[in-house]
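Re: [ENG-882] Designed sequences occasionally contain unexpected residues at chain ends

Forwarding the minimal case from QA. Structure tokens:
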């Protein structure tokens, strides 16, 4: 299991893209929340409100998620990175894998 972290300029765009990834079964679930961000832009420090997204998926889907995020993302240089999960509850891992399978879960 991995989590992928990225940020968006607004809640609507974050939810739109995350839902797209979910419907395509590239991710099993997502969390979107508002954050305060500070960063360098054009040689000076900027501060802004953004929306962060944590996307939960399998190692096997990582590159597909990265590719789709880059296609859909509104930022020209988006922060997109993954973190491999060392330990995960067995029941949650099973749910995640079932959620990402190509068969209908219902």
């Amino acid at each position: 299991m991995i989590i992928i972290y990225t940020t968006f300029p607004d809640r609507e765009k974050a939810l739109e893209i995350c839902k797209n990834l979910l419907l395509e079964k590239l991710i099993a679930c997502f969390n979107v929340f508002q954050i305060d961000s500070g960063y360098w832009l054009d040689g000076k420090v900027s501060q802004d409100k953004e929306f962060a997204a944590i996307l939960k998926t399998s190692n096997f889907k990582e590159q597909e998620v990265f590719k789709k995020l880059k296609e859909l993302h509104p930022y020209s240089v988006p922060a997109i990175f993954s973190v491999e999960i060392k330990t995960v509850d067995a029941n949650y891992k099973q749910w995640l894998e079932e959620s990402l399978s190509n068969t209908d879960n219902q």
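QA comment: On inspection the terminal residues look reasonable. The chain has one domain: 2-100. Proposing we downgrade this to a documentation issue.
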